[in-house]
Amino acid sequence: MRLVHTVDQIHDEGHMSQAAFGISVRVAAVLHSLTGRVVGSKGLLLVGPGNNGGDALWAGALLARRGIAVRALCTSESCHEIGRSKFLAAGGRFIARADAERFAPDIVLDGIFGAGYRDGLPEEVRAAISSTSTLGTMVAIDVPTGVHADTGIADEGCVQADVTLTIGTLKPGILTGQGKAASGVIDVVPLDFTYPASDSFVVDYSDLEDVYGPAPLLSHKYTRGVALINAGSLRYPGAGVLAVGGARASGIGMVRFAGEQPAGVMATYPDVIVSNDLAHTNAILVGSGESGTTEQLAEYLATDMPVVIDAHALTFLSNAEARTALAQRYERGAITVLTPHEGEAARLGFAEPSRIAQATAIAQSFNAFVVLKGAGTVIASPMGAYAIDQYGTAALATAGSGDVLAGLIAGTLAQGCAVDDALRHVACAVALHGLAGRRADGGCTATTLVEALVEVHSELVDTRE
User: Fold this and answer.
1) N or C: which end of the chain has fewer CB within 10 A?
2) Cα–Cα distance between 429 and 451 in angstroms, integer?
């Protein structure tokens, strides 16, 4: 697990030196991959007035000493003095915006505004970004200029980076929404700085190994967990097949199917039990593919086992009785997971421009964990903590992908999870889903996604045996 921070790091001269060195090493690597050389390459710095500009100038000085022709375009009346002096001493030169195109850089290094950006982009900055955006590969320092580091909201005219070299720690705004789209490939430049505790994180591969490792030697199907899947309908019969496929791929011991269209499920997975018995069930999914009724949801919410509420069943939450049941489950320590995409979130009454704020608001309003699907899926806890997925891909934007994810979450929770660790377990399910999407990319459908899930999960088990 890696923590995510919204705070900007302290920028004394020692930290700026570390940041500049890390930036210069990574920029040199990018230049080599682009041009086949470092010496003789050309880099243009876009420099703002603060520490971000200082990082760019200091890194530019190091790049100049490596034989790279470096020019700087200042977007404000002044710039960081220490960075400026080091840049000039290394042979760097400042140029006017009109001369940037003639310079023809291989790479453009965005050092205008970083994590501290709050206000709108000045016109001079917009003009500088617009006139240089196509001159070379765009590399942003810390956060692309115009992206809000704590929300992922991107202002009009922001930098669209090919690579973002974020300093010290991941920032939430480059992992989700517009900020993710503007950040390109993300690389963390290490910084010797102690960050405060954070309730925000991304899961890493070690979390997946922990959650999806092999079952104990003396396990049987009931100890490995049983999930009841109420998914699919006459209109969407395939949703049941896909949700069951997601649950089975979690490493679960047994799946019970309680949907309307069992024939297709049984034809695909003959090991599934057609049953609505809750007596030996450990987690429940309802709603995928227009499944379930308000009465069934009420029955499920009356239990203490984890309940995943997806798609169609989210519409039942406007019912006052359902809201009361959710609050009571929260007080009992029972786990409830809602899985809306942004459109469904808006229909629930939450349409904040920040995906992080949107997910956390829903979680606290409904006393449930929330998986807000989309670019940089946000997984929020009713206690205020959140995780952001770093593995998802546009390959998952395909019909039925959400059904697979809902089943996978239910299967994961059915294997046992304390409420204090539920956020990490749900985030791991989202991450596993994303890794499978990457595995199946190039022709990803919900069906091939299930197949890829089985492959990725088996590799996680193999690493622990």
Assistant:
1) C
2) 15
Any idea which residue has 């294997």 for tokens?
415
Stretch (H or E) spanning 227 = strand 226-230
Distance between CA 29 and CA 316 in Å, rounded?
53
SS3 percent helix, strand, coil of the chain, rounded to 5, is: 45, 15, 40
318 by Cβ neighbours in 10 Å (0-12 / 13-18 / 19+) ranks as exposed
Task: Give the DSSP per-residue string, 283-324.
Answer: EEEE-TTT---HHHHHHHHTSSS-EEE-GGGGGGGGSHHHHH
What interhelical angle do 238-248 and 401-414 show, nearest 10? Answer: 40
pTM metric for this prediction: 0.95
What are 5's two structure tokens? 């921070």
Rounded (10°) angle between helices 13-35 and 81-89: 50
320 burial level (CB within 10 Å; 0-12, 13-18, 19+): exposed
Task: Could you list the beta-strand ranges (E) of 58-197.
Answer: 69-74, 93-94, 107-111, 137-141, 163-167, 185-189
Tell me the C-alpha distance between 67 and 79, whole Å.
24
* Rounded Cα distance, 301 and 296, in Å: 9
Lowest mean pLDDT among 5-14, 241-250, 320-329, 443-452: 5-14
Q: Which residues, in sequence order, are CB contacts of 119 under 8 Å at separation 6+?
A: none
Asked whether the beta carbons of 171 and 155 are under 8 A apart, the reply is no
What is the rounded CA–CA span in Å between residue 226 and residue 259?
16
- Nearest residue to 335 (alpha-carbon basis) of 373, 374, 309, 298: 309
pLDDT tens digits along 101-123: 999 999 999 999 989 898 899 99
